[in-house]
Amino acid sequence: MLTAVNLRKVFVTKEKKGPWRSRKKEVVAVNTLDLAIRPGEIVGLLGINGAGKTTTIKMLSTLLVPTAGSIMVDGTDAVKEPMKVKKRINMIAGGERMLYWRLTARENLAYFGSLYGLSGKALTERIHRLLQAVELEAAADTPVEQYSKGMKQRLQIARGLINNPSYLFLDEPTLGLDAPIAKHLREHIRNLAVKEGKGILLTSHYLTEVEALCERVYIIDQGELVLHDTPKRVIQKVAAGEILSLWVSGLLPATHEHLRQMLVPLEASLTILEQSDGVELRIQSKGEITAQVLKFLFEHGVIPHRLEVEKPKLEDAILKLAGREEKGREKA
User: Fold this and answer.
1) Which of 125, 150, 157, 127 is nearest to 140 (CA)?
2) I need a surface site. Which of 138, 154, 164, 246 has the fewest CB within 10 A?
3) Nearest of 237, 219, 230, 241 to residue 52 by alpha carbon
4) What is the pLDDT, as a whole number, of residue 231?
5) What confidence tier does 34 reach under pLDDT thresholds 50, 70, 90?
């Protein structure tokens, strides 16, 4: 298991106080963060830009030394024995970084494999298996600069697996990809955890992707842990409820008012939007109210000719949490 306990990273910068003077300024990027990744599970690391996600991943992947705290990878201290830990981890970034465009896929994998001490027949066989797995055999000897975005991202995955890591850090792995290609890559990521037992830490702005892949999520803001739970429970805790939209005709003003009064004890708000063929009743609530609203309308002789129920998503919860944290800082 990979664990981080009381992880903290402080950057020291210089702040000018005049033409000849400056003083040191401390910027806390990550503050007392705890997290864990078990073999065979996909965990999300989420937050608004500037939350500390990139700094956290750099510390976990030994690219940055923590100011305080510990990182253990299957019993090995990542700070004291970084070279040993590097053999058990790897990182895959979205976009087109971390590849040499003038080299072929085979040459890229051979180069990165050599950095992990692989050579000879073992490296050749590893490259062959990875190119098969990401379906790039036919283009193995084509320069990467001629690849499509999807092909480059599949090669990124192969590069990240060249050392057969136990833990993978995925930073926006489907960034900029078309929907069908992104879906295919998500399936590949899921298989890495389910079939190969790899522990995966995922950061992504595509929160539907996080909902689909992650068993647990860590939500951080300003470098501190705000919430840790399953995506479903995060939504229930932060953004529970629903938005109910009903399109109706012949609704009397008195019925409007009765409906509004009925919604008050349910902590629901009503917005009435005029439409060409009637009105749209838009009701936002903290709980599920569809059955109660329909019962009320039927009792008043109103039959909706269209109905939509919108459930909150993980994105709604993240934005709501970010809003709460921002308000808290303003008050402070």
Assistant:
1) 127
2) 138
3) 219
4) 94
5) very high
Instruction: Name the pTM for this structure.
Output: 0.81
HSE (side-chain half, CA atoms, 13 Å) at 146: 10
* Sequence-distant (≥ 6) Cβ neighbours of residue 36 within 8 angstroms: 1, 2, 3, 4, 43
- For the chain, residues classed under CATH 3.30.70.260 are 240-310
- What are the start and end residues of each CATH 3.40.50.300 domain in the chain? 1-234
**pLDDT exceeds cutoff 50 at 330:** no
Task: Give the tens place of pLDDT for each residue, 75-107.
Answer: 999 999 999 999 999 999 877 778 999 999 999
Identify the band that residue 324 occupies on the pLDDT scale cut at 50, 70 and 90: low
- Percent of the chain surpassing pLDDT 90: 58
In this predicted model, what pLDDT tens digit does every residue of 183-226 receive, in sequence order? Answer: 888 999 999 999 999 999 999 888 999 999 999 999 998 899 99
Candidates 3.40.50.300, 3.60.15.10, 3.90.550.10, 3.40.50.720; CATH matching 1-234: 3.40.50.300
Check if the beta carbon of residue 169 is closer than 8 Å to that of residue 201.
Answer: yes
pLDDT score, position 287: 78
Query: In the CATH scheme, what is the code of domain 240-310?
Result: 3.30.70.260
